[in-house]
Amino acid sequence: MNERGVPRRANRAVHRWRLPLTWLALLLVLTVGMAELEGVFRWIETDSRQVIYDRADFVTLLGRHLLVVMVASLLATLVGVSAAIAVTRRAGRDFLPLVAQIASMGQTFPPVAVLALAVPVLGFGTLPIIVALLLYGLLPIVRNTLAGLQGIDSSILEAARGMGMSRGQVLRQVELPLAAPVIVAGIRTSVTVNIATAALGATVGASNLGDPIISGIVNGNTAYILQGALMIGLLALTVDSTFERLALRRARR
């Protein structure tokens, strides 16, 4: 206990999470208090009658943005990790180059092009941007999962088999725990990139934090663009620093 009666362990925990909590606090303050900054944005955009984006409140836009990124990232994680596990098994090793190439194509193919191809099939709205983010987020997850699984010392796997573990037990109890830091690093990269990329959804009717950016570009309103960019930037910093804290916590354990 310190002189204020607060356990030292609690103080250390708060200190470790200070950066993510700071970014989160700034994000929440900006989300609910954007209108209070009208004077600042008025100074930036002096020629516009309206300087605060008000076609939808920022709380709603943030929630929609988070939902799209979470769904796409969850699907990308499930597909990417499962595919990487499958091609590192004996029966699927012949497909390893194919899976790696498909994942690479998903990120090299521009998200805008994916949206243009998906809209005629899926229509306007949220589904096209989820498909685009899914394809765009596969590469770092597949690549890191492959690296993590293939980087495990073969002697460890042999020792696990020598203890009588089945293939499933070796995967669940040995391979995945050892590869987890590398896999999580890939998921972290995928999610962070997709937070920014999700703004493109506003071009196909998926309402999110890209709305003020697209509206600002169309109407020549710099204030709108800054509001959307600040929100997306703070969200990306919050998520990225949270992943970093979780990785450090796991490393300490």
TrEMBL record:
Keyword Transmembrane: yes
UniProt similarity note: Belongs to the binding-protein-dependent transport system permease family.
Name of the molecule in the record: Osmoprotectant transport system permease protein
ABC transmembrane type-1 domain segment(s): 62-243
Keyword terms of this UniProt record: Membrane, Transmembrane, Transmembrane helix, Transport
Compartmental location: Cell membrane
InterPro entries, alphabetized: ABC_transp_perm/SBD (IPR051204), MetI-like (IPR000515), MetI-like_sf (IPR035906)
GO terms classed as biological process: glycine betaine transport; transmembrane transport
Organism: Halomonas korlensis
GO CC annotation terms, alphabetical: plasma membrane
A Pfam family hit: BPD_transp_1
Gene3D superfamilies assigned to the protein according to its UniProt record, in alphabetical order: MetI-like
PANTHER family with a match to the protein in the record: GLYCINE BETAINE UPTAKE SYSTEM PERMEASE PROTEIN YEHW (PTHR30177:SF32), GLYCINE BETAINE/L-PROLINE TRANSPORT SYSTEM PERMEASE PROTEIN PROW (PTHR30177)
Membrane topology: Multi-pass membrane protein
